[in-house]
Amino acid sequence: MDEMKLSNPAKVPETPKRSMGEWVKQNLFSNVPNTVLTIVFGFLALYSIKGLLGFILSGERRWAAVATNMRLLMAQGYPANQFIRVWFTLGCLMVLTGVSLAIWRSNGVLKAKRIGTWVLNLGVGAAIFALLAPISASARGGWLIATAVLLLLGCFLKIGSDKSMLPDDVPTIWFSFSCLAVLVLSLWTVPYGHYAFTDGELIAESGRTVAMSTKLPFTVMLLLLVGSFLLAGVARGLVQIPKAKVVLSGLWLLSPFVLNWIVLRDPDFDYGRVFSTDIPIGLLFIGFGFLILYPLTNPSIGEKGRLVAIALLMFAAFNWIAAFFGLYPMLQKVRISFL
After folding, report:
1. Above 50 in pLDDT, residue 244?
2. In terms of domains, do 135 and 200 share one?
3. Burial label, 99 (beta-carbon count in 10 A; 0-12, 13-18, 19+)
4. Taking the model in full, what pTM does it have?
5. Range of 30's domain?
6. Least confident segment among 59-63, 103-107, 139-143, 178-182
7. 65 in a domain, yes or no?
8. At what angle do helices 112-132 and 32-56 cross, to 10 degrees?
9. Is 232 exposed, middle or buried (0-12, 13-18, 19+ CB in 10 A)?
10. DSSP state, 266?
């Protein structure tokens, strides 16, 4: 019997496809009790959403304070005249991300029909917001237009996928890039308003797009991400992939230290001391460390290697004890390097 089971594995029956109307009827209105529950709790949900939106969008709320202090919330008190360092750091991360996606070749895909379902859900959410939120007539009209666009786009994706008018699979990377592009495009087109607090003066300009100092850098970040991905994809066949992955892994490992401690913090280095003391110390430790540790990695050295390793560890610990009692002076970086 076991052999029969192994040679004839049972297939899991496929779930029959149902239209949206059939799903709604079976799950929400299958019988009288379900219909009553759906109607009652549907009204309760809409009433709760309307109350929540009314509370959030009430004129008593001061959301302009959030928009005014957005830079403070995102970057704390980083000096405005040094903000180019923040964008440079983000740009480096975008380039690393784009190149890594191309080298590791992320081949994930999403079904166009599933994307259509997501877009339809967004359209339904936008419709609920437009109908229940306490907003002006012009704003309500804008939300209804957005609702119509989302619903039409969702239906087009679902119907086009069913009738083979569209490809069934959409690359996940390009779907993600498209979503980011829509967000960046909204910075140029949607009147989020311009809010700032400059030189003790509050700037609150509604009905216009965000400042150029915001939308232009984010556009450049998107171009760096997509451009680095495309260029790395072209150069992928010209490099050795294993070595490229090692280099990228090393860059990702070093990026927090370089970008955070050097680029963002802008330390005041004494380069004379760096070249006269720090670099020679580093080279000495690299050289002597290699001469000592490389032979210890030989499996044939046996017990002698363990004794040498214990001696080195005891010597490093002794340096910290000597520093605590002030027996002899030694640079802190040297003690750390011994460890």
Report:
1. yes
2. yes
3. buried
4. 0.69
5. 18-58
6. 59-63
7. no
8. 70
9. buried
10. -
